[in-house]
Design goal:
Helices cover about 40% and strands about 20% of the residues. The chain contains 11 helices and 12 strands. A hairpin with a 2-residue loop joins β1 and β2. α1 crosses α4. The protein has 3 domains: about 80 residues, Orthogonal Bundle (Arc Repressor Mutant, subunit A); about 120 residues, D-Maltodextrin-Binding Protein, domain 2; about 100 residues, 3-Layer(aba) Sandwich (D-Maltodextrin-Binding Protein, domain 2). The strands form 3 sheets. Strands 3, 4, 5, 6, 9, 10, 11 and 12 form an 8-stranded mixed beta sheet that branches. A two-stranded antiparallel ribbon has the order 1-2. With about 325 residues, the chain is of the alpha/beta class.
């Protein structure tokens, strides 16, 4: 029985699929399946079975999960301790929903890295909000940005609001399309495939059928298509102020919109955080961080730019 096998088991159990576990670990699905098979053979128990309702833990799997989670956490702490003894830079691993990653993560990391007192190695990724609690609790991420999340009782995590924003709907300069909102052509980013996000909740509330939704690579691409008259797009008001001033986009007046929403940061509870994660939490409350989230358009120098790595493959 190895740490790799236990890690694979915990993530499959928490995330509900081999594919999601493979994405979180950055390995292939066969690698996760092989690790899970080896653990099953060693313990003489199926641990996880697949049924009509999805993955289900066996009685033995249920008992193993809590212990395996503790072992995985200790393994991550041991790795961090050895890195510190070797004088390696402290690691800060960030995951975020697509919209936050597209606009805010780069400038935020750049500003934080300049203020952190020692060397820090920052990596960023994109993950569905449903994975955030598991990734943070199992030390695969130090912080997750997106909607507020909750963990199970044994997950020592906390989700804190960091920035309020307003979600609106925009169209090209010509204004409101004809017909009911559910009949419009909706242009969205991958955020809309995540049921917990504001965009997904808006589409569900309006009853928009899948046939009227088009997922574009980014929210910027969705706004550009909307400006060209291809449909309407959800938009974060403070991020489209320039397009509104130039008349490229206009806000579509609708009941209940704009929606007041909030970005959250999910961390381990204070006593379990690394020093870099604790420093980032304090930085998020500063005027500099607030200004970056309000107006992140300044960008970052090419030498500091690192595009987010997608740790989840969207279906």
């Amino acid at each position: 029985m190895t740490l790799t096998q236990l890690n694979a088991f915990v993530l499959v159990a928490r995330l509900g699929s081999v594919r999601a576990a493979a994405g979180a670990l950055g390995v292939s699905e066969p690698a996760v399946s092989q690790a899970l098979t080896a653990l099953r053979n060693y313990l003489g128990d199926q641990l996880i079975t697949r049924g009509p309702a999805g993955m289900t833990l066996t009685p033995g799997g249920s008992r193993l999960l809590a212990t395996a989670s503790q072992i995985v956490v200790l393994g991550a702490e041991a790795h961090a301790a050895v890195r510190a003894a070797q004088g390696a830079p402290e690691q800060l691993r960030i995951v975020a929903t697509p919209t936050f990653a597209e606009f805010v993560v780069g400038p935020l990391v750049e500003a934080f890295s300049r203020r952190f007192p020692g060397p820090v190695e920052v990596s960023t990724g994109v993950a569905a909000s449903g994975e955030h609690a598991v990734l943070v609790a199992n030390r695969l991420a130090d912080v997750a940005f997106g909607p507020g999340v909750t963990g199970e009782n044994e997950m020592p995590i906390v989700s804190e609001p960091i920035f309020k924003y307003r979600l609106a709907v925009v169209a090209g300069g010509h204004g409101r399309p004809q017909g009911a909102p559910r009949q419009w052509r909706w242009l969205v980013d991958p955020n809309a495939t995540d049921p917990a996000t504001a965009t997904a909740r808006l589409l569900a509330r309006l009853g928009v059928p899948d046939g009227n939704i088009r997922v574009l690579p980014s929210l910027t691409a969705a706004w550009a298509a909307a400006a060209d008259g291809a449909g309407v797009a959800p938009a974060i008001e403070h991020l489209i102020s320039a397009q509104l001033r130039r008349g490229e986009l206009s806000i579509v007046e609708m009941p209940g919109l704009p929606m007041d929403e909030c970005w959250y940061a999910t961390f381990l509870e204070r006593e379990y955080r690394s020093s870099a994660a604790g420093a980032l939490r304090r930085f998020l409350g500063t005027p500099d961080a607030m200004q970056l989230m309000r107006s992140p358009a300044a960008g970052v120098p090419p030498s500091r730019f690192k595009p987010p790595v997608y740790v989840t493959i969207w279906s």
